[in-house]
Design brief:
alpha/beta, 9 helices, 6 strands, globular
Protein backbone atom coordinates (compact mmCIF):
# COMPACT_ATOMS: atom_id res chain seq x y z
CA UNK A 1 0.00 0.00 0.00
CA UNK A 2 1.08 3.54 -0.73
CA UNK A 3 2.34 5.64 2.19
CA UNK A 4 0.66 9.05 2.54
CA UNK A 5 1.81 11.77 4.96
CA UNK A 6 -0.63 14.56 5.84
CA UNK A 7 0.84 17.97 6.71
CA UNK A 8 -1.18 20.57 8.60
CA UNK A 9 -1.05 24.35 8.25
CA UNK A 10 0.33 27.11 10.48
CA UNK A 11 -1.46 27.16 13.85
CA UNK A 12 -3.01 23.81 12.93
CA UNK A 13 -2.42 20.26 14.12
CA UNK A 14 -2.67 16.70 12.91
CA UNK A 15 -5.99 16.27 14.75
CA UNK A 16 -7.63 18.31 11.98
CA UNK A 17 -7.07 15.38 9.61
CA UNK A 18 -8.75 12.78 11.83
CA UNK A 19 -11.73 12.22 9.52
CA UNK A 20 -9.66 12.33 6.33
CA UNK A 21 -7.12 9.86 7.72
CA UNK A 22 -9.89 7.48 8.78
CA UNK A 23 -11.49 7.64 5.32
CA UNK A 24 -8.18 6.87 3.59
CA UNK A 25 -6.82 4.12 5.84
CA UNK A 26 -8.29 1.23 3.85
CA UNK A 27 -6.45 2.25 0.67
CA UNK A 28 -3.32 3.95 1.99
CA UNK A 29 -0.97 3.77 4.93
CA UNK A 30 -1.71 7.17 6.39
CA UNK A 31 0.75 9.12 8.50
CA UNK A 32 0.32 12.40 10.36
CA UNK A 33 2.66 14.60 12.34
CA UNK A 34 2.62 17.79 14.36
CA UNK A 35 5.22 20.36 13.41
CA UNK A 36 7.26 21.90 16.21
CA UNK A 37 5.21 24.21 18.40
CA UNK A 38 1.94 22.75 17.12
CA UNK A 39 -0.37 20.26 18.78
CA UNK A 40 1.55 20.36 22.05
CA UNK A 41 4.93 19.54 20.46
CA UNK A 42 7.74 21.59 22.08
CA UNK A 43 9.29 24.35 19.99
CA UNK A 44 12.52 22.75 18.81
CA UNK A 45 14.08 25.74 17.09
CA UNK A 46 14.20 29.46 17.75
CA UNK A 47 12.93 30.54 14.34
CA UNK A 48 10.28 28.86 12.23
CA UNK A 49 10.91 28.54 8.50
CA UNK A 50 9.82 26.42 5.57
CA UNK A 51 13.21 24.64 5.38
CA UNK A 52 13.00 23.89 9.10
CA UNK A 53 9.57 22.28 8.78
CA UNK A 54 10.74 20.42 5.68
CA UNK A 55 13.61 19.01 7.73
CA UNK A 56 11.05 17.78 10.26
CA UNK A 57 9.24 15.96 7.45
CA UNK A 58 12.46 14.27 6.39
CA UNK A 59 13.26 13.35 10.01
CA UNK A 60 9.84 11.72 10.24
CA UNK A 61 10.53 9.67 7.10
CA UNK A 62 13.94 8.58 8.37
CA UNK A 63 12.73 7.78 11.87
CA UNK A 64 9.91 5.64 10.46
CA UNK A 65 12.06 3.95 7.79
CA UNK A 66 9.99 5.35 4.95
CA UNK A 67 11.90 5.34 1.68
CA UNK A 68 9.19 7.06 -0.33
CA UNK A 69 5.85 8.69 0.44
CA UNK A 70 3.16 10.84 -1.10
CA UNK A 71 2.45 14.15 0.61
CA UNK A 72 -0.79 16.00 1.22
CA UNK A 73 -0.34 19.48 2.61
CA UNK A 74 -2.93 22.02 3.66
CA UNK A 75 -2.03 25.74 3.57
CA UNK A 76 1.50 26.03 5.02
CA UNK A 77 1.73 22.25 4.87
CA UNK A 78 1.26 22.42 1.11
CA UNK A 79 4.08 24.94 0.78
CA UNK A 80 6.31 22.69 2.89
CA UNK A 81 5.34 19.72 0.72
CA UNK A 82 6.43 21.58 -2.42
CA UNK A 83 9.74 22.52 -0.80
CA UNK A 84 10.31 18.88 0.12
CA UNK A 85 9.41 17.75 -3.41
CA UNK A 86 11.94 20.20 -4.85
CA UNK A 87 14.80 19.33 -2.53
CA UNK A 88 14.19 15.62 -1.80
CA UNK A 89 12.58 14.42 -5.01
CA UNK A 90 13.84 10.86 -4.69
CA UNK A 91 11.80 10.41 -1.49
CA UNK A 92 8.47 11.78 -2.74
CA UNK A 93 6.04 9.86 -4.97
CA UNK A 94 3.48 12.63 -5.46
CA UNK A 95 2.24 15.85 -3.87
CA UNK A 96 -1.24 17.21 -3.23
CA UNK A 97 -1.65 20.74 -1.93
CA UNK A 98 -4.84 22.32 -0.63
CA UNK A 99 -5.13 26.09 -0.19
CA UNK A 100 -1.35 26.55 -0.29
CA UNK A 101 -0.19 30.18 -0.29
CA UNK A 102 2.54 30.36 -2.92
CA UNK A 103 2.89 34.10 -3.48
CA UNK A 104 4.56 36.12 -0.73
CA UNK A 105 5.74 39.71 -0.68
CA UNK A 106 5.84 42.43 1.98
CA UNK A 107 2.28 43.64 1.50
CA UNK A 108 0.88 40.10 1.46
CA UNK A 109 2.76 39.18 4.64
CA UNK A 110 1.68 42.39 6.40
CA UNK A 111 -1.96 41.69 5.57
CA UNK A 112 -1.79 38.19 7.04
CA UNK A 113 0.19 39.26 10.10
CA UNK A 114 -2.48 41.83 10.99
CA UNK A 115 -4.94 38.98 11.42
CA UNK A 116 -2.59 37.17 13.81
CA UNK A 117 -2.79 39.57 16.75
CA UNK A 118 -3.34 37.42 19.84
CA UNK A 119 -5.14 40.07 21.87
CA UNK A 120 -7.55 40.81 19.04
CA UNK A 121 -8.29 37.12 18.62
CA UNK A 122 -8.83 36.67 22.34
CA UNK A 123 -11.24 39.61 22.59
CA UNK A 124 -13.13 39.35 19.30
CA UNK A 125 -12.90 35.61 18.62
CA UNK A 126 -12.94 34.02 22.08
CA UNK A 127 -14.18 30.64 20.81
CA UNK A 128 -11.29 30.47 18.34
CA UNK A 129 -8.85 31.47 21.08
CA UNK A 130 -10.18 28.67 23.28
CA UNK A 131 -9.81 26.24 20.37
CA UNK A 132 -6.20 27.30 19.82
CA UNK A 133 -5.43 26.97 23.51
CA UNK A 134 -6.81 23.43 23.61
CA UNK A 135 -5.17 22.41 20.32
CA UNK A 136 -1.66 23.43 21.35
CA UNK A 137 -1.70 22.79 25.10
CA UNK A 138 0.41 22.75 27.17
CA UNK A 139 2.26 25.28 25.01
CA UNK A 140 1.31 28.94 24.84
CA UNK A 141 -0.72 29.48 21.68
CA UNK A 142 0.10 33.20 21.78
CA UNK A 143 3.82 32.44 21.55
CA UNK A 144 3.15 30.08 18.66
CA UNK A 145 1.14 32.80 16.95
CA UNK A 146 4.04 35.25 17.26
CA UNK A 147 6.51 32.75 15.86
CA UNK A 148 4.24 32.01 12.89
CA UNK A 149 3.86 35.75 12.31
CA UNK A 150 7.65 36.11 12.33
CA UNK A 151 7.88 33.37 9.71
CA UNK A 152 5.37 35.18 7.49
CA UNK A 153 7.39 38.38 7.89
CA UNK A 154 10.49 36.53 6.68
CA UNK A 155 8.55 35.11 3.73
CA UNK A 156 7.46 38.64 2.87
CA UNK A 157 11.08 39.75 2.84
CA UNK A 158 12.14 36.81 0.66
CA UNK A 159 9.83 34.11 -0.64
CA UNK A 160 11.45 30.73 0.02
CA UNK A 161 10.19 29.28 -3.28
CA UNK A 162 10.41 31.53 -6.31
CA UNK A 163 7.98 30.99 -9.15
CA UNK A 164 10.76 29.69 -11.40
CA UNK A 165 11.71 27.05 -8.79
CA UNK A 166 8.56 25.06 -9.50
CA UNK A 167 9.83 24.19 -12.97
CA UNK A 168 12.34 21.94 -11.19
CA UNK A 169 9.73 20.01 -9.20
CA UNK A 170 9.45 16.82 -11.27
CA UNK A 171 7.10 15.10 -8.83
CA UNK A 172 3.50 14.50 -9.93
CA UNK A 173 1.46 17.23 -8.28
CA UNK A 174 -2.16 18.16 -7.72
CA UNK A 175 -2.95 21.72 -6.67
CA UNK A 176 -6.35 22.21 -5.04
CA UNK A 177 -7.95 25.49 -4.06
CA UNK A 178 -11.38 26.57 -2.88
CA UNK A 179 -13.29 29.01 -5.05
CA UNK A 180 -14.04 31.21 -2.01
CA UNK A 181 -10.56 31.24 -0.52
CA UNK A 182 -9.79 34.79 0.67
CA UNK A 183 -6.16 34.08 1.51
CA UNK A 184 -4.98 32.20 -1.58
CA UNK A 185 -5.79 33.47 -5.06
CA UNK A 186 -6.69 31.28 -7.98
CA UNK A 187 -4.24 33.28 -10.11
CA UNK A 188 -1.22 32.44 -7.94
CA UNK A 189 -2.24 28.79 -7.92
CA UNK A 190 -2.55 28.76 -11.71
CA UNK A 191 0.86 30.45 -12.01
CA UNK A 192 2.52 27.64 -10.04
CA UNK A 193 0.49 24.99 -11.88
CA UNK A 194 1.79 26.29 -15.20
CA UNK A 195 5.38 26.06 -13.99
CA UNK A 196 5.16 22.48 -12.73
CA UNK A 197 6.22 19.89 -15.35
CA UNK A 198 3.74 17.20 -14.25
CA UNK A 199 0.72 18.74 -12.54
CA UNK A 200 -3.04 18.84 -12.36
CA UNK A 201 -5.28 21.42 -10.73
CA UNK A 202 -8.69 21.29 -9.10
CA UNK A 203 -11.19 23.88 -7.86
CA UNK A 204 -13.39 22.99 -4.89
CA UNK A 205 -16.84 24.60 -5.10
CA UNK A 206 -18.26 26.77 -2.32
CA UNK A 207 -15.04 26.36 -0.36
CA UNK A 208 -13.27 29.01 1.74
CA UNK A 209 -9.76 28.72 3.21
CA UNK A 210 -10.31 27.07 6.63
CA UNK A 211 -9.79 23.32 6.40
CA UNK A 212 -12.73 22.76 8.75
CA UNK A 213 -15.03 24.18 6.07
CA UNK A 214 -13.81 21.95 3.24
CA UNK A 215 -16.27 19.41 1.88
CA UNK A 216 -14.34 16.30 2.87
CA UNK A 217 -16.29 14.00 0.56
CA UNK A 218 -15.37 16.08 -2.50
CA UNK A 219 -11.78 16.41 -1.33
CA UNK A 220 -11.44 12.66 -0.77
CA UNK A 221 -12.74 11.84 -4.25
CA UNK A 222 -10.15 14.16 -5.82
CA UNK A 223 -7.33 12.89 -3.62
CA UNK A 224 -8.06 9.22 -4.19
CA UNK A 225 -8.40 9.61 -7.95
CA UNK A 226 -5.08 11.43 -8.20
CA UNK A 227 -3.20 9.06 -5.89
CA UNK A 228 -4.48 5.97 -7.71
CA UNK A 229 -3.42 7.36 -11.07
CA UNK A 230 -0.05 8.43 -9.73
CA UNK A 231 0.62 4.99 -8.32
CA UNK A 232 0.02 3.14 -11.58
CA UNK A 233 1.89 5.55 -13.84
Amino acid sequence: MQHLLLLHGAMGAKEQFKNIAAALKNEFIVHTLNFSGHGGIPIAYENFSIPFFAAEVMNYLDNNNLDKVSLFGYSMGGYVAMYVALNYQERISSVITLAAKFHWDKSTAEKEIKMMDAETIASKLPNFATQLQARHAPLDWKLLLRKCADMLHDLGEENTLKLEDYANVKTKSLLLIGDRDKMVTIDETIAVYKQLPDAAMGLLPSTPHPVEQVNEQVLLVMMKQFLRRSEVQ
